[in-house]
Amino acid sequence: MYPVGRPSFLQPSSSRQLRFEADISPLQDGWSQLRMSSGSESTSVISALGTLIGYIGSEAATDDLFERLLWPQRCFNAFSWPDIIRVGLLNPMGGPMHKAALTTLDKLHQNGLFEGPSLGNMLGTAFFHDTRLGYKMQDSLSNSIVEDYVRNGLWVQAISHIPILTTSQEDGNGELGTKPPRLVRARTVVNILELSYTDGKVESSKTVKKDVGSVSFRTLLAIIWSEITGIAMGVFVLAFWNSYFAFIWFLPVTLRLLSALTTIKRENLIPKPIVKEDEEEVKQFEINTYGHGFLLVEGKESAVLQFFRHYGHPIRNRVRESLQMVIIVLLGLVFPVGLVCSLIWMPVGLQYLWLGYQLYATMAMYTFRFTRNHQPTMSQARLAQIFANGTDEARFAYLQDDNGTTVQGRLTRIYVRNYGEGQKVLHEYMRRRQDKATQDRNPEHASSDIGDISVKSSGRSTPKASVSNNSEVKG
User: Fold this and answer.
1) Angle formed at CA 413 by CA 408 and CA 418, multiple of 5 degrees
2) Running DSSP on this structure, what letter comes out for residue 280?
3) Residue-wise over 291-322: b if at least 16 C-beta within 10 A, else e?
4) pLDDT by residue (tens digit) across 41-76?
5) Nearest residue to 229 via CA among 361, 345, 337, 101
6) Are β-strands 207-209 and 396-400 bridged in parallel, bridged antiparallel, or unpaired?
7) What is the pTM of this model?
8) Which stretch of DSSP H or E encloses residue 384?
9) Please, which residues have CB within 8 angstroms of residue 349's CB and are 6 or more apart in sequence?
10) Quick one: which of 1, 60, 223, 361 has the fewest CB in 10 Å?
């Protein structure tokens, strides 16, 4: 023992080291607690932000996200180079989609698709979209009005995609060439679409290939490109962290490719029937597209009704149906699984990367919802673009399958100033067409042929609109 009061520097070094460690241990404990507290606060912040993004993002996701998943042939049928930026940045499916997935599954359950093979109804689900529009047809044989539903109605959806030209009340009508009245309640348009089979060669620039059958290589490339942001994030995680959590970013594109390769087959165009030209009567189908103008579809039943009934309808296959439902469930679980992994196992830097990607995916879904940026690549949007770009004398579009069966659409558009005027134009046109058909059947009872349509609205008479088969109606 050393005497009491001996200077510390004279004490052995081991004793001094023990006292030094005893003095510094509280500082080390405090620093460790500070680091633990900081990590805990970061986890709490990420947890709160992840929950908030999950709530906001789930409200942005819509059911048609899964409609394009289950029908990739239609979704990317018109995919081309100008769509690369739009598709690559605004179409990821790695965000919070759990609510949309549950809604989709609810509809499948309500329609009885969980009951068993060939049970239930696919119309009105993500497998087969329902426009919920109806049509009226004048049956000349029974002299009665036949009412039925448009159902999926490819051509009707195409007409709804054509923008209605807008002008100020002081400007002239761009297509009619007339000056609108002082009061314009709801400027709208009357569309007259003639559908018929056509033979021979058609212009490729005005032709849309059928969106049923096997998935093309171009469609698979479009799916991969639509998830390019998630793929890039997964590669970055592998390169920088060398972490197996990269699977979270690769999972959406893997599931989408699996869904495309096992997609349900659908019914094709009906071949042109072998009948005499005058054996099948031309019918008129009146449709109100609610906000997209009036629509009158003219044509023989064999050419028209297939789009109101069977074209594109899924061919029942229980194995493929069940697999698609499982894929919907897995896509709905991508966000919850990622959130759990980020809170429990991911390092802090990787947590922030996952959180940032979810924020980006949420913003992309909101843009998708309010601008419908996926639609320019769809079949109906391509048909609408062809019609909109056509001249007055050449508003034609064609739908063609691999066997050469081609359906031609010829569109006439009449711009009107309000709803009542549109009704008058439509009904006057229908009456004159019916009179013309009666005249052709009974020449001895000839009546006035189709000529000028005069419309009166709100006490004002508008210029007569001359209707022709090949050109825009002029006022």
Assistant:
1) 145
2) S
3) ebbbbbbbbbebbbbbbbbebbbbeeeeebbe
4) 666 777 777 778 888 878 888 888 999 999 999 999
5) 361
6) parallel
7) 0.80
8) helix 379-389
9) 241
10) 1
